[in-house]
Design a protein that fits this description.
The protein is built from seven helices and three strands; from the N terminus they run αααβααββαα. The protein has 151 residues and is mainly alpha-helical. It has a domain at 32-119: E3 ubiquitin-protein ligase (Arc Repressor Mutant, subunit A, Orthogonal Bundle). Strands 1-3-2 form a three-stranded antiparallel sheet. A hairpin with a 4-residue loop joins strand 2 and strand 3 (91-94). The longest helix has 28 residues, at 111-138. InterPro entries: E3_ELL-like, ELL/occludin, ELL_N, WH_DNA-bd_sf.
């Protein structure tokens, strides 16, 4: 009877899930390690530069690269400093003045992220240049601004 049970186990065991094999050599660890070594605040800023995040998804994204124990409870405080809350969908967006401090070669950015950031930065710099030049040329004087509107 014992031999019969052993013979049944000698065949291949059916797998419940088939996973794609990943060789550790194929994973680019340099980005993860380089980002993990950076200040937590900078990591938050560079993620928010690419898109708006809700707090749980931002936390999950940060944890994927690793979070130091000392940084675990500081996300709320950092978000108050660097982000604006959109009350409609409870998402956070990067404060405008912080776009000037971004590193386009941030190690956590993929090639696509870098291209997207360049596009975002060019859009942000172009309107401000146009507004400055057009507002100076067409800005009404004090008497025109304060005059009542006639219909």
């Amino acid at each position: 009877e014992v031999r019969g049970a052993q013979e049944n186990n000698s065949g291949p065991v059916p797998e419940k899930k088939r996973m794609m094999p990943v060789r550790l050599a194929d994973i680019d660890w340099s980005g993860c390690a380089a980002v993990y070594g950076r200040p937590y605040r900078d990591r938050v800023i560079h993620l928010l530069a690419l898109r708006d995040y809700k707090e749980p998804e931002l936390l999950a994204r940060l944890q994927r690269d690793g979070v130091r124990p000392k940084d675990k409870d500081s996300l709320g405080k950092i978000l108050q400093q660097v982000a604006n809350l959109n009350a409609r969908d409870n998402s956070f967006s990067l404060k405008e003045h912080l776009f000037q401090t971004l590193q386009t070669d941030w190690p956590g950015y993929s090639k696509i992220d870098r291209e997207n950031l360049r596009l975002i930065l060019s859009r942000k710099s172009a309107p401000s240049q146009n507004l400055t030049s057009s507002s100076q040329a067409t800005s009404p004087g004090p008497s025109e601004r304060d005059a009542p509107v006639r219909r």
